[in-house]
Amino acid sequence: MKTEHDISQSPWHFYYGPNLGYIQEVYEQYLKNPDDVDSSYKELFQRWGPPSSPASASAVQASSVTNGAAAVQTTISADPAFLKKVVDAGKLVRNIRTYGHLAAQNDPLGLSNSTDTSLLKPETFQLTREDLKAIPASLIWEEAPESIQNGWDALQKLQETYTQSLGFEFGHIHEENERIWLNRQAESGMAAKPLSVTERTALLNRLIEVEQFETFLQRAFLGQKRFSIEGNDMLVPMLDEIVRELAHDGARHILMGMAHRGRLNVLTHVLGKPYGTIFSEFHHAPNKDLIPSEGSIGISFGWTGDVKYHLGAHRSVKAGETVETRISLANNPSHLEYVNPVVEGFTRAAQDDRSKPGYPVPDFGAAAAVLIHGDAAFAGEGIVAESLNFKKLQGYENGGTIHIIVNNRIGFTTESSDSRSTHYASDLAKGYEIPIVHVSADDPEACIAAVRMACEYRHKFHKDFLIDMIGYRRYGHNETDDPETTQPLLYQKQRNHPRVVSIYENVLKSKGLITDEKLEETKQAGLSRLQAELDLVKDNEKQGKIGRMDTSARLRSKEINTAVPHDKLRSINANLLKWPEGFTVYGKLERILMRRSDALDEGGKVDWGQAETLAFATILADGKPIRLSGQDSERATFAHRNLVLHDPVTGATHCPLHTLPEARASFAVYNSPLSEAAVLGFDYGYNVHSPETLVIWEAQYGDFANAAQVIIDQFLSAGRVKWSQNSSLVMLLPHGYEGQGPEHSSARLERFLSLAAEDNWTVANLTSAAQYFHLLRRQAAITNTEEARPLIVMAPKSLIRNSLVASDSKALSEGAFQPVLEQPGLGSSARKVERLILCSGKIAIDLATALEAGKDGENAETKDWSWLHIARVEQLYPFPKGDVERIIARFPNLKEIVWVQEEPQNMGAWNYIEPRIRARAPRKSAVRYIGLPKRSSPASGFQYIHNMEQQRIISVALNRGTLTVNAKEDNGDE
Ligand SMILES: Cc1ncc(C[n+]2csc(CCOP(=O)(O)OP(=O)(O)O)c2C)c(N)n1
């Protein structure tokens, strides 16, 4: 066996298949303009000339070798056996790069299942040490450091890089330039780059603080749950580093989301929540035993800190001027991972410039999201995948979220083998091509290296990065659990495992960077600080100084003028129907849109779609930005909107609201990914962070909103009372019984009404285009005020095109939103009215249609409806009691008040409305229900059954013969 070979060291031999194609494309680019290609490629082309296939390469004379031992010239084809060894060594390198993480020593307790790592071993390829020593290093590792001369040393070095505390998992990244960059970062010694002495001392001091805080809480508040960070203590220094790096890159906002584990430690050390505040929350825990499994007093509250309190995170722009970076930790419900889309929404809102017409313009550098996950929750909760899917979507991307899985190898009492089918907790992220680093929580410097890589990657590629920090959980799920009941062996093993702070102390001591005396001094100072803060809390307690957050502020309604002068509406309407020079509007659509041109003229009618567009346009003219997102929202499920026009000739798009001369703010409309929970969560977060924006989320059909129930229950409904977190988000939920079956009829109105209390939101079910116009404008007017609250609209389906729903233009240019609308033409002889029908939404239009046709009931001949009046409750919550009371009071001879609904009795508004009507019904009048009977499924699957049932409801409602005195009560009960 020869030890030296005259062969080419050109790196092109290792490019084949798609990689060769790619490098050839880069070369062509280079020939056109060398500066257009990455400097590393430029260097390679300058050094090695054009890339060529192995076949051609073996046939040609190799160029002169300038690096390594084999600085001579020959042809590769000279020694096929040697060539095979080189190729195999190349495969080995590729395997180490791709699969080295499987052999990494990054599992502190050694709990990982053993994996077959034979692909990483030379013997698998029949390569001996001598074989490898004979191969020049640069043949198999193009950028091997100068000091590494041969293949053996190269492999040793690569093994060390890829299989120690850091496991790099990049093989799933399809973008070649990114993967090369990532591997180069790993191989450039980044991972082994030592921290400075100051950095190391600061890191140790931080770990001491982290640990002392937990042990102090344990001692001072024995028996209370804190969801200790211990076992993954490095989370705090890692977040410190992320803040420093992102602030250095110019981020003005860092938006963080996390669950219970380590939250108190993060709140105090990263967000600057004072020790005293946390101690006082523990002190006031009302029933220490009953704190929920992952809750604790104050644990779900967020905190907005500011890095001006945080050493090293300032960014000096120029002398005397400082840019501040605000870091926020989102309020978090117990529901694991559901905060993710909310934080993504915060972040995008912090990046978007909404001040000009058109789409808002994001600045990805202005804000960054950091999400901290649990290993069981990341693998198990579907919301994680839904949120990762935002990564590259125009309306939702944010230039890269940094994810950290705090991987303690267990979820409550469930081990990984029972909680996921994947090898790693992080595997889901691979589908989204997110680079992943698995790092040992016991190696502080490796953790910091992972963070630096994540930040650099985000900075360079504006994409997500994931760090899977593998540690353990020192206590049970919480500190009152005995984990040995369920994981005896694991916890016996762990009991003897040294804490990370001790491991790192020893590292620094062995390098002579810290002394025992200095360590003792630091620890004593930390303990004294903690004790002093606790003493202060106790003193304040004695003096009654501790205040509580007030979340009880009730909202007051006030009159808001939402009418828009007729001239202004006409001019806006005309401008909305102008297209850019040369833009062709799809013929069929153009005809539909052009019908809007005279809708504002005398005798014209504004339909639902036009009312919506005019509402949007006038809100933009008032200077208020709008964001609308949902499935197919550009066109809308029922094609009433068409706010993005598509040129059938060129494929170009045009949104008339973007070029509207009157607009003074951005208008964002996005077709969302097919998700409800994540998109609603995102839009909620967007709205909370940009309260001045009218943010609208639209469901494809209203009932699909129940896929987002957690966001509705945990954030929208309760966010203000739980966290003083206000939102004015609008939910448009198509609702209405039209025979489409169980799944497309009901937006589950009853759920929104059962959650309604303390003025938490507005729930409306409308029957006119003008009402929609005014309600949207009213909602826009209350954004960013004390009045702000979500608006839930049961949106129409067939009613969109119903002429009874269209409005005169006067109804837009005058008046305002009416919480209750009375049926025109009824109730004029007040003394004759015996039945008052109250109803809401589409059934009111069905009744009006029947009245108009005069074909129902015994009055068909005479058309005498004097015994009847109908009022539509357009705003169900807050209940317009004054309006309803005034109507009832007008009719002295009422025999009954009837609630008519199209939904089953156990659904719709009946259960909500019944006590409200009863409380206001005159003593001698009955309160009745007419609607579908109780059902377990919201609607029938058969059109003919639907028609029959609907007909029955209308007939009974409009039939004088069914009056209470004449008929038995029809309350729908079985
Ligand atoms: C949606 C949801 N389901 C169930 C729970 C109850 N729960 C709280 S913590 C926990 C285990 C979480 O494990 P992991 O994600 O690994 O985080 P760790 O507690 O280990 O840090 C469970 C099941 C919850 N909080 N949220």
TrEMBL record:
Domain Transketolase-like pyrimidine-binding, residue spans: 606-802
InterPro entries: 2-oxogl_dehyd_N, 2oxoglutarate_DH_E1, 2oxoglutarate_DH_E1_bac, DH_E1, KGD_C_sf, ODO-1/KGD_C, THDP-binding, Transketolase-like_Pyr-bd
Catalytic reaction(s) noted: N(6)-[(R)-lipoyl]-L-lysyl-[protein] + 2-oxoglutarate + H(+) = N(6)-[(R)-S(8)-succinyldihydrolipoyl]-L-lysyl-[protein] + CO2
Enzyme Commission designation: 1.2.4.2
Gene Ontology biological-process entries: glycolytic process; tricarboxylic acid cycle
Any single Pfam family the record assigns to this protein: OxoGdeHyase_C
Protein keywords: Glycolysis, Oxidoreductase, Thiamine pyrophosphate
The keyword Oxidoreductase belongs to this UniProt entry's keyword annotation: yes
Required co-factors: thiamine diphosphate
GO cellular component, one term: oxoglutarate dehydrogenase complex
Catalytic EC class: oxidoreductase
Keyword Oxidoreductase set for record: yes
MF terms in GO: oxoglutarate dehydrogenase (succinyl-transferring) activity; thiamine pyrophosphate binding
Assigned protein family: Belongs to the alpha-ketoglutarate dehydrogenase family.
The protein's role, per its UniProt record: E1 component of the 2-oxoglutarate dehydrogenase (OGDH) complex which catalyzes the decarboxylation of 2-oxoglutarate, the first step in the conversion of 2-oxoglutarate to succinyl-CoA and CO(2).
Subunit composition and interactions: Homodimer. Part of the 2-oxoglutarate dehydrogenase (OGDH) complex composed of E1 (2-oxoglutarate dehydrogenase), E2 (dihydrolipoamide succinyltransferase) and E3 (dihydrolipoamide dehydrogenase); the complex contains multiple copies of the three enzymatic components (E1, E2 and E3).
Protein name: 2-oxoglutarate dehydrogenase E1 component
